[in-house]
Design goal:
272 residues, alpha+beta, four-stranded mixed beta sheet, three-stranded antiparallel beta sheet, 6 helices, 9 strands, globular
């Protein structure tokens, strides 16, 4: 009996070790390496705050393949429950008038794979730091979305409904879609949902003239500002606002039904 119990215990430990290893690999695989190099940022043919187009060199970094989901954010939120002030501070906004979003934390169970929304820039930053990461800079976000060429959309220049937008007939009309629902809309680097679904907080302050004096290497935005940059467009926007270069901005304290985020991390020097 003791030998059988010992054998069962060993099997249990090994099974959990294997599952943990698989989970770790899966989590690691969600971060996509963007190689170091130069790309063209901005556009001379679009909005004034996207001008002028300019060359930017970025060192290697990782960026999330998917937007952070309800389930992922819920794990962070639960870790704060011993500190009620922090838990309250970083609680996502409720959207009872949007049944496809709903209330927090119930929606984390009902829609675990939907991108988390109702989170401020400060919430996004706190989550990223809890994961040992950070928010992507505006330049990092754009390179991950467009690659090395002037792609209008992450998938190219074709005006196709490869994203969840307000144009309709995309399978998720007037509602948020689970992350990764549009594989044809992936970027040059294989990153999902960089057009539509939800806007994404970036690390940078916004300035409409910043591109005229952007540093040539690893730009991090202006030193001060009133708004933080969001990128990518959302389920409430027309496809024309979901381009790789379109810039928008919001107060960092706002928690809306159409803004989420993804995370990033600087690559180690040996990961070139």
């Amino acid at each position: 009996m003791k030998i059988r119990l010992l054998f069962s215990t060993i099997l249990f430990i090994l099974s959990n070790a294997i599952l943990c290893n698989v989970f770790a690999q899966k989590t690691e695989n969600q971060m996509i390496l963007i190689p170091a190099g130069t790309f063209t940022m901005g556009s001379d043919r679009r909005a004034d705050d996207e001008k002028p187009s300019h060359k930017v060199y970025l060192t290697a970094y990782y960026i999330g393949k998917y937007e952070v989901t309800n389930a992922e954010y819920h794990e962070f939120w639960m870790s704060l429950q011993n500190n009620k002030a922090k838990a309250t501070l970083h609680t996502p906004e409720d959207f009872s008038h949007h049944p496809h979003i709903g209330q927090w934390p119930e929606r984390a169970k009902k829609y675990p794979n939907h991108p988390v929304v109702g989170v401020s820039w400060h919430d996004a930053k706190a989550y990223a730091e809890w994961k040992g990461m950070r928010l992507p800079t505006e330049a990092e976000w754009e390179k991950a979305a467009r690659g090395y060429t002037d792609r209008t959309f992450p998938w190219g220049n074709a005006f196709e409904l490869f994203a969840n937008t307000a144009d309709g007939n995309d399978g998720y009309e007037n509602r948020i879609a689970p992350v990764g629902s549009y594989p044809k809309g992936k970027s040059f680097f294989g990153i999902m949902d960089m057009a539509g679904n939800v806007w994404e907080w970036t690390a940078d302050w916004y300035s409409d003239v910043y591109y005229y004096h952007t540093p040539k290497q690893n730009p991090e935005g202006p030193n001060v500002g009133s708004w933080r940059v969001v990128r990518g467009g959302s389920w409430i926007d027309k496809l024309a606002r979901c381009t790789t270069t379109f810039r928008f901005y919001l107060y960092p304290t706002l928690k809306t039904s159409f803004v989420g985020f993804r995370i990033a991390k600087t690559a180690e020097p040996n990961n070139k």
